Amino acid sequence: MFKPIAFAMDAEKVHDLTISILSKNGHWGSFLGVSESNTNFNLKVGNRTWSFPIGLAAGLDKNAQCYDFFDNLGFGAVEVGTVTPLAQTGNPKPRLFRYPKEESLRNCMGFNNLGSDFMFETVSRLPQYKEQRPTPLGVNIGKNKVTPDEIAHEDYRFLYEKFKGLADYIVVNVSSPNTPGLREHQSRDGLEMILKSLERREGDVDLFVKISPDMNIESLPDVIEVAKKYHVTGIIGTNTTIMEDRGVGGISGKLLFDKARVMRKKCLELTKEAGLEFIGVGGFSSFEEILEYWKDGGRAVQIYSAFIFQGPDLLKDIEHKTKELMDFHGVSTFEELLERLQEG
Questions:
Q1: Which residue from 74, 106, 271, 285 puts its CA 20 to 30 A from 304's CA?
Q2: Per-residue pLDDT, 10
Q3: Has 305 been annotated as catalytic?
Q4: How many domains is the chain partitioned into structurally?
């Protein structure tokens, strides 16, 4: 009943209302999400363990207000943001559009968020890093629109320093299409300037770089090389895509899947060679698509748009079918299942 009413309303208003409700009712996730089972779905990602191989992608909980809900729902990890140093309103409205028949979204939000001070206070109230927090928390970071491109690295350094003691992993977002000039920082020189400025040391928090599906695939080896040089944990692929016939902004959901899949396959090949982690995201909407990704060598997955359209039932379906597959192969852990699926 709720979905038809919600989909008849302005998409961003529904999103904001939902976040407001869920931020005050985190316990709802416990009876809406995946079951409490004895199945070992654990998956090591970087220095942390996900209790389920499906995480929540950035963009849904921009200001880290609903961690408890998504944790209780059963996501293996919860990524919040994108956060910028200073609060910003983003691009003019309307800026969020649905394509229900294609289970896709178009957004031209422009990193609207309440700023790093607000998120810091919110995240500081959560169970502390590593010792007590049940589900890994990722913080997706980006530059303010008003920050000149030549000093964008200063925004990323500021945010990295601010959240490295609180987050379980940090994501450098240089791939959103909605901040002018941002994607230029995916170039070898642009990315190197950002990563070098972070001055990472051994034992630092896990760090990922999120890439675009629209970048020239021939430049991907440069991204991987720079990431490895500056001790990045891994790559997240991919962000939203530009489809000019649909209008301004980034497209996510089923319309993104084919383009993202091409980029993911190349990423899996290159990250494996480089010894980097890879988290797959971009257009996944079914267990079958995720299974194909696992067979291709993938491991951790993130979802966003499919969750908007299918809700917690998608997580339940993935849980059920993954358990069935584990039983079929006679394995007791998810890591063992991946080994079976990727044999040969």
A1: 271
A2: 87
A3: no
A4: 1
